[in-house]
Known about the structure:
This protein is of the alpha+beta class. It has helices spanning 38-53, 56-63, 109-112, 133-142, 156-175, 185-188, 251-256, 277-286; strands at 2-3, 16-19, 32-37, 79-82, 88-91, 100-105, 123-129, 180-182, 198-202, 213-219, 224-231, 240-250. Helix 1 crosses helix 5. The two termini are 35 Å apart. The site of zinc ion has 8 residues, from strand 3 and helix 1.
Amino acid sequence: MREIGACIYCGSLNSLTDEHYFPLSLGGTDILKKASCTECAKAINSRIESRVLGSQLANFRRNLGLPSRRNKKAKGKPGVYRDTLGRTFTVPAKDALTAALIYELCTAGVLCGRMEIFDDGAFTIASIHGKDDIEEQEFCQKYPLWDKTLTILPQPHLFAALIAKILHGAFINSFGMNGCIFYLPKVIIGDLSPLQLVGSVKRTDSPKIEGGMSFSGICISEHHALLIADYDIFNGGFDFIYQAVVGIVEISEMAKISEIKPAKFSASDTRTGRSATNDVLKHLRLLGLAVPS
Ligand SMILES: [Zn+2]
């Protein structure tokens, strides 16, 4: 358990609390001690976690038996539904339907030159899990007044912000905060679209992942590299994994971390075909992200 002594989102040294960067409701048990200020913790919880996880993803994980990294099973959350008279009713977690939207994202915007303000089209819904016939029949037998509707609003940006939060914390848990310019707080507590820094890659295109996570670097100058984190959050449940641009590190620092090897610049996008270091640097500056001169 690593103690940080500063908020990993805003840098504040005051009113620090322990940070569950991998949400408890997804089975996360890892804690960074004294690592988020109460203000950021509150904002992130209300803006991202409570909205993304709601009752959906937790039940999805539990009912599909997906283990967390520590092999703890997600407990699930009670489900809220409507009856045919428009009234809401709550069912215990063990009965709740598992429907949840899982997103396959495009390459992170900064790695492919995508600049749309709202990132329309930067995701597809990979699956709506769990609402199969048997599950639904059983649910109807037990709750005959259910109006048979599920209201799920696609929230790819919030989902990506949650991925950003997990990867930001996981990197700091592994390597600490020294020698890195962090980008992800800007999409976790800021206004920048998370889809600029978070995306998906095909499993086969990713470095080999051990323990669910791996790091790699893309050289952007003689001395600096973009630090990329790949994370198999669903433990092999899909043929893609999530990827985030964590920030910038000095290549000499990277060399001290055995898991990270300086890599040849390799960003490319099948839609635009752009793949130049200068494009990435220009893009980062346009987004207001700090770039070493
Ligand atoms: Zn803070």
